[in-house]
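Aim 2 progress update. The chain analyzed this quarter is reproduced below.
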Amino acid sequence: MLFITNRSIKEADKRKITVARRIRFELKDNQAGHSVYFCERTGKDDYQEIGSGDFLKRLRECEADHLLFYIHGFSNLPEPDIFPRSETLQKLFDGKKRNYVKVIPLIWPCDDDKGIIKDYWDDQKSADASAFAFARVLEKFMAWREENPNEEAPCLKRINVLAHSMGNRVLRQTLLHWAKYDRNWEIPLILRNSFLLAADIVNESLERDNPGKFICQASRNVSVYFASDDLALRASKASNLKNKVASRRLGHSGPENLELIPRNVFSVDCDDVNTRYDPLTGHCYFLEDGEGNPGRVFDHIFNSIQNGRVEVEDPVNRMHLIRG
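Predicted structure tokens:
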């Protein structure tokens, strides 16, 4: 599995990778690095840095029609959480249509200590700081896509993003930094779908005057999946009161005001299934059902990728209900 990370590694940083080298995560260091590593996982705890050139070449040459970049949530570590979940996503996509979607995790540095409240605040800082590194990845991708236009066929693969929980903060800040520092506040339409799952950002984030507007600018479709009984986001709202942020979370209630968000944003109510798929918190409900089959939220995601359009029961209000 290919992946990109700005987590610290135990090996010395190298400016240019000409031969793949084995790397190990420094899990005790949760500082967001400005260095970005383009890597491959060949097994549990077995990672190689392959460099951006080889990484992008493999993406171009892979059989998949769609690339799905998965940005994980807070307090997630590579092996217990991120890679197994990415493998489950890949398995579900392959079960629908083999070699159609390729899942690529973007791994940012979460904390690994035992204090959940301390983890939350440390991870918020890491999510914000990671934006600088991942904005560089976007600029590198744009440069790669545009170079040697007469020597190679253009890369025609469609790009999608699935951001879960605090991963939405990483996505929002990455696009904001990219717009500010590299694109003169105008970013190109590069994403077919942005799937915002249980988003741990305020529910006004996507409005036209707020930083999340760049998610809408970069995407053909933006699908917001929310559930009012998501216990993790209830705790998040309470935690954010410390900083006098009283607004509900986007993944808890959906967008605050549909009239203030762009027309390419769709709201998907997952109240009927979230606690059935994730009985503990109702927070991670986009994978399998209780019997290991693709859940209805996953089915909705797959259909959006396949059709290029978001299924909604109420097209006027751009809303859809996932029924149990």
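The first strand starts at residue 2 and ends at 5. The chain has a mean pLDDT of 90. These observations will guide the mutagenesis experiments scheduled for the next reporting period.
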